[in-house]
Design a protein that fits this description.
By secondary structure, the chain is α+β, with helices and mostly antiparallel strands. Helix content is about 40%, strand content about 20%.
Amino acid sequence: MSEIEEKIEETAIPANQYGDDSIIHLDDVEHIRRRLSMYIGRRGDGSDPTDGIYVLAKEVVDNSIDEFRSGHGKRIDIALEGKTMTVRDYGRGIPHKGMIMAVSKLNSGAKYDDKSYKQSVGLNGVGLKAVNALSIDFKVQSFIDGRTKWAVFSQGKLQEEGEGETSEKNGTFISFTPDNEIFEGYEFNVDYLVDMVKNYAYLNTGLTLMFNKTQYKSNEGLLDLLNDTIDEEPLYPPIHLTGKDIEIVMTHGSKYGENIYSFVNGQNTIMGGTHLAAFREAIGKTLKDFYKKDFTPADARTSIVGAISISISEPEFEAQTKVQLGSKYMSKDGVTIQKYVGDFISLELDNYLHKHKDVADILLAKILASEKDRKAVQGLRKETKERLKKASLNNKKLSDCKIHYNDKNEQRDESTIFLTEGDSASGSIKKIRNANTQAVFSLKGKPLNSYKASKKDVYDNEELSLLQAALNIDEDMDNLRYNKVVIATDADVDGMHIRLLLLTFFLKFYPDLIRKGHLYILQTPLFRVSDKNHNVYCYSTAEKDAATAKIKNNTVTRFKGLGEISPEEFKGFIGKDIRLEKVHLTPDDSIADLLEFYMGENDNIRLDFIRDNLRSDIDNVEEAQ
C-alpha cells in the first residue's frame, strides 16, 4: 500500500458512524494529493495527452507564458531529462519574500486582480502548488536584480532554502519530477510535449521557446498552425484575420466534419466552450448574410478547418484543467464573447470576401456542394430511418443503457458503448455490464470497408446505419449519446481486422469523435497465470513472464477471444479497473495519409512495414497458445 493510501485508510471513518471524530482537516498538500482530480483531472501514466503529468507541465509553462504576455521576457527554455522537467523564463522573477508561499500555499498568488497580469490563464492560485505537492522533487529559484532565492521541496514539503547574489538574468527557474507514487509507472511522451510547445509558439508571436535545444517560434500565429497541421490541399488560401484580443484563421477542405482549434489566453481549450460556439455561429450567419442565401449553417461549416484564439479578463473554465471555456463575457465591461466574436467575424470576414472575389466564388461553390450532398443524403436518411425502425423491432444488436452522454445527469460522463465482435463476446459483456451506464452493440462480422465508400454507401449498409443511429452522430456530434465509444474485439487476426475497419469508418466520416477523445480500444487480458491460490491476468507477454516467475507450478491460459472469458471473469475487465487505450489524432496526423497507408492499394509497402515492425515476442505468444 502506498503512503497516500495508508493515510486515507488511517483517517477512514467506520461505516454508519458520524461524530466529532468524523470532521477532519486536510492541509493544502494533503488535499491536493488526496483529491488530485480537482486540480489536474486524471492521473494516467503519460500515455494520454490529457494525463496529469502534462497538466503539471502546462501549469509551470503557463506562468512563464503569462510573464511574456505581460511584456516581460521573450524566451523560455524547457528541457526534459528522464522524468525531470525544467522551465526557465526571463521575466520578472517571483518576488523573494512571497516565493515559498506562492509555490506551496493554496489561494496565494498575484492573479486575483489585473494589477500584475491583465489577461492570464491562471487565476486561482493553484497551479504551482499542485505541481509542488505532486512532485517527489520540486525546486524553485527566482532571480531579481542581482539577488536570488531558491527552495527545494519533496511531496510539497519544504526541505531546504537559501538566498544570495547572482549574475543570472532576471526570471524564474522551476524543476520538477512527478511523484511515481501518484503517477505509477509514468513516462513523458516527448511528442505530446512538442505539440504543447508548438501551440505556445503559434499563440505567442515573438516568443522564442527552446525545448531540448530545439527552437520553436512563430511569426504568423494561427496561420502557421493551420499551414503546419492541415492534412489536405485547402480549397482556397487560408483566411487570416486579427484584431484586438482575437485572431482567427479558416479555410475549407473536402473531408467530412469540422476541425476547429480553439484557444483562450494561450490555453488550448480542446473541449471548446463559449468562444468556439460563438465562432461556429458567426461563420454560418456571416456567410448567409454575405451571399444573401438562406444557407443551413451546417452547410457553411462542412469541411471547415480553422482556429480561433481570444484573450479575455478573468476567464472561467469548466475545471482546473482549463480545457473548456465557460465565460460569457470578454471583460468587466459587459460585452459578451458571443457578441464580440460575432461582430468581429461579421465585419472582417465580410470585408475579406468583398476584396477577394476568387475566394468568395470557391467558398460559394463549396457551400452549394455541401448543401446538395446534404439534401441527397436527407432523402436517404428518411428511407433509412424507416428501414431501421423495422429492423430495430427484431434487431438485438443494441443493448442500450439508461444514462446517456446527452442527458443532464451527473453520471453522463460514464456512459459507454462497447462495439463487440459476434454474439459470444457481446453475451459475456451483456450479462455483467452496468446497465445504467454501459451499452453493447454487437457486430455480426466484418463491417463494410468504408475507405472508398460514400455517405450513401453507409446508409445502404444496415449495420453501419444502425451504428450511426445508436451513437446519434449522423446529423451533429453535439447529440452523441455515449461519452466513450469502445471497440472491443478479439486479440486475433480477425479481431484486429474488424478494429481496423471500424477505425477507418470513424476516421473518414466522424474524425471529430476521435479528436474530442471519445474513441477507445478495450484492452483485455491475453493470459491467465494461475495455481490453486492465485489467478493473475496479464495483458502482455512481459506481465505473463513476471507472473510465472512468482507463481510456481502454474498453469498459463491464453485468451484468443472475448467469448472465451467467462462473464464472472469479465466483470473485472470492464469495471473500475477497466483498461482503455484512447485513439489519438495529433495535429501532425494526416487522416488521408493514414487511410491511404492502412487501407489503400499499397500491399508491398504495408508488407515491408509489417516485416520491419513485427513484435519480437510473437513467438512467445504462439508458444503459449
